[in-house]
Amino acid sequence: MLTLCIRCLPLIHKTNPSPMSTKSYVLLSLLLLSTFPAFSQFKIGVKVAPVLSTGRVVSQDSTQEWTRFSSAPRIIVGPFVDIIFAENYFFNTGILFAPKRFSVAPANATTPDVRNVQYVQVPLSLKLYTDEFRLDTRLYIQMGGVAEIKVADEDLEASVDYLPELNLFDGSLLFGGGVEYRWGYNTTLYGGLTYQRGLFNVISGAYALTAPYNFKSDLIGLDLGVKF
């Protein structure tokens, strides 16, 4: 199943990742899966998360209002690990492929600057579970952070240049919750809602000093997966 998800990555949106970024993502995923057998109680899984890539624009120029122009559907995929450290308490991490779309323009403009940007995400979060409220079924909440590194960047609107150079690194707060169902002896299915709220301006340091706005990336959507 992991192999199938990785092969599907170029189909997630129109921008294909470079061979180097895809190779790096695969190697990081395999490294993650080989690191955790030392833990006695853990679950390895694969998630597929249909999300809406959006963001927040804060104008820094008192003479011109800037705005986020549109949102876009995307799919986050990748392997993860849940490590138990107390009853009903888990530490969650993974290596996830996360495509995003940024679009920004002056408030009176008709053509925005649009960028397709691809990140590798490493979530670092806690998952807290309830006791079973029905047979093999329980609720969970998730909270923590997400570290991100940019692996690809494509400008889709060459006629305007409102989005300057983007930072290599980014980070978000992570909140979520849902329901988990144990299907058989070793397999668990889950589904829920997820929200990532960007913490940092995605514009790189040199350009951020002169840019007329700050842009922070957000994601909201469904969280679907299976654990083994």
Structure notes:
With 228 residues, this protein is mainly beta. The protein has one domain (2-227): Porin (Beta Barrel), CATH 2.40.160. It is 12% helix and 57% strand. The protein is built from 3 helices and 10 strands. The chain has helices at 2-7, 19-35, 205-208, and strands at residues 42-59, 66-68, 72-86, 89-94, 96-106, 113-129, 137-155, 169-183, 187-198, 213-227. Strands 1-3-4-6-7-8-9-10 form an 8-stranded antiparallel barrel. It is elongated and about 60 Å long. The N and C termini lie close together (11 Å).
Secondary-structure topology with pairs:
Layout (H helix, E strand, L loop, with lengths): L1 H6 L11 H17 L6 E18 L6 E3 L3 E15 L2 E6 L1 E11 L6 E17 L7 E19 L13 E15 L3 E12 L6 H4 L4 E15 L1
Antiparallel strand pairs: 1-3, 1-10, 2-5, 3-4, 4-6, 5-6, 6-7, 7-8, 8-9, 9-10
Short description:
This protein is mainly β and 228 residues long. It has helices at 2-7, 19-35, 205-208, and strands at 42-59, 66-68, 72-86, 89-94, 96-106, 113-129, 137-155, 169-183, 187-198, 213-227. It has an eight-stranded antiparallel beta barrel with strand order 1-3-4-6-7-8-9-10.
Characteristics:
12% helix, 8-stranded antiparallel barrel, single chain, 3 helices, Porin, 228 residues, elongated, mainly beta
Write down the CATH class: Mainly Beta
First-last Cα distance: 11 Å
Number of domains: 1
H/E order of the elements? HHEEEEEEEEEHE
Q: Strand content of the residues, in percent?
A: over 45%
